[in-house]
Design goal:
By secondary structure, the protein is mostly beta strands. It has three domains: 239 residues, Immunoglobulin-like; 97 residues, Immunoglobulin-like; 94 residues, Immunoglobulin-like (Sandwich). The protein has a five-stranded mixed β-sheet. A five-stranded mixed β-sheet has the order 7-14-13-9-11, with no helix packed on it. A four-stranded antiparallel β-sheet has the order 6-8-12-10, with no helix packed on it. β21 and β22 form a beta hairpin. α1 runs parallel beside α4. The radius of gyration is 35 Å and the shape is elongated. The relative contact order is 0.08.
Length: 456
């Protein structure tokens, strides 16, 4: 991935004064720069001439119509970052920062050069619209009788890997034209190596593969690398397969979301376990663990040279609501000396009513609605009585789980009129700290559908 200005399309032109094909290619790219630079495309003309004097390079570029300053890649870092594609090469980078196309060579004649310029123009138009290579057509003019190389899977997701791990994958491609094709060049950006050659000759409709190996970065997070494929016809765009994945943290723990004591107080006293594993060579020592609040305690046990077990306990009492904290685990890993483990616990109300109010449709028919009462405290709860603030309402209580959960059912007769008076249900319990629970009832009117146009 190329990092630069956000949402900027970039065109990187690698060339050399010693390459005769660059003399054919540069004027075309200079014309494209004159057209697309005002539209926001950043053109970078990069000379790979290490031994040629800079003034000679500037004179040659000026003679070929290049109006931008020429950048000298004296130590070849930029060229090597793209795995040294042949010159001349034009690399198009989209707004996302990913390589979207590689054009190698200058075309065999003026007609081929014209097709190449038209293709690049069409691709730049799409990139400026925020699109990618998935929107590119097989050829600039859409002709079906020209060779067309298609990547079967333009983005290859390889999953999660340890820092610095070596991974292999396969890039598949197909000749989607009616003409035979030869794949002349398969390479990759820095870090990707092509193994055991690749399928070169492709008859119409035939597929080929290239097996590649790469070393993932040693920094946790997402990564992207690029495998580059080019045909032997310079008038056709090379294709790019983007290899993506995720580098795991140096030290991981499970469950990945952290410790959750849930919202059930009856299991809050049960300890919770988190397991740690360190990726990479050498022993990692887990040296200690501390909670950020006194509501939790932590114990750490080293299991072997790369694994440890964390035991977390909740320390009641807890006030009603959500409680959050972190367990800080200290290690000797130089890049991850502290591992932060989130901890969450929810203390619900002593008696919970779900829903908190009963909603009933206000219409002339018999209606029934209900709510669940859940006891979240120690011991059990008995329902002593249930009553209504309106004599026409008929409440009933059913025990669902002995001493813990009850179902309230309210029956409303057809002739009931709600009026402006507030209506509620009162539940009496045997809990000294909560002898009554009041549940409001709300009546609402059904929404009438809009009337259609009157017939006349």
């Amino acid at each position: 991935m190329l990092r630069g200005d956000s949402n900027e399309v970039t065109a990187l032109m690698f060339w050399s004064v010693r390459c005769p094909h660059s003399e054919d290619h540069l004027p075309m790219v200079a014309r494209l720069a004159e057209t697309y630079s005002p539209r926001g495309v950043a053109f970078r003309f990069i000379s790979i001439d290490e031994q040629t004097p800079s003034d000679e390079i500037a004179v040659q570029a000026d003679a070929l119509g290049v109006q931008q300053a020429v950048l000298l890649d004296e130590d070849a870092r930029v060229h090597q970052a793209f795995h040294q594609p042949p010159v001349p090469s034009l690399i198009l980078v989209g707004q996302s920062g990913f390589v979207e196309a590689l054009h190698v060579g200058a075309g065999s004649d003026e007609e081929a050069m014209g097709r190449l310029e038209a293709r690049i123009s069409a691709e730049l138009d799409l990139l400026l619209e925020g699109k990618g290579r998935g929107e590119f057509t097989a050829s600039a003019d859409g002709a079906a009788d020209e060779p067309a190389l298609t990547i079967v899977q333009p983005r290859i997701e390889t999953g999660q890997h340890k820092p610095g791990e070596r991974v292999q994958t396969v890039v598949s491609y197909r000749n989607t034209s009616q003409q035979p094709m030869r794949v002349a060049y398969v390479s990759g950006t820095k870090g990707i190596t092509v193994l055991d050659g690749f399928t070169e000759e492709l008859a119409p409709g035939r597929a080929g593969t290239a097996r590649v190996e790469f070393q993932v970065p040693d920094v946790p997070g997402r990564f992207a690398m690029h495998a580059l494929l080019a045909t032997d016809d310079g008038s056709h765009a090379s294709r790019v397969a983007t290899v993506t994945g995720t580098v795991r943290p140096y030290i991981e723990f499970t469950p990945a979301a952290g410790i959750d004591f849930t919202r059930n107080p009856r299991v809050h006293r049960t300890p919770r376990i988190a397991m740690f594993i360190a990726h990479g060579p050498g022993e990692v020592r887990f040296e200690g663990a501390e909670a950020t609040t006194p509501n939790f305690t932590a114990e750490l046990a080293q299991l072997d040279e790369s694994r440890a077990r964390l035991t977390v306990r909740a320390v009641p009492p807890f006030e009603e609501g959500e409680h959050q904290a972190e367990i800080h685990v200290r290690t000797n890993h130089p890049r991850q000396p502290i591992v932060r483990v989130p901890v969450k616990l929810i203390q619900p109300p002593r008696v919970e009513v779900l829903p908190s109010e009963i909603t009933i449709l206000d219409e002339p028919r018999v209606r029934r609605a209900g709510a669940t009462l859940r006891h979240n405290g120690e011991g059990s709860m008995r329902i002593l009585n249930v009553s209504s603030s309106h004599e026409q309402l008929e409440p009933q209580i059913q025990q669902r789980q002995e001493g813990l959960q009850y179902q309230l059912i309210v029956t409303v007769p057809a002739d009931f009129e709600s009026g402006a008076e507030a209506v509620s249900i009162t539940v009496e319990t045997d809990l000294p700290e909560l002898p009554t629970v009041t549940i409001p009832i709300r009546f609402h009117t059904a929404i009438q559908p809009a009337a259609g146009p009157a017939e006349g």
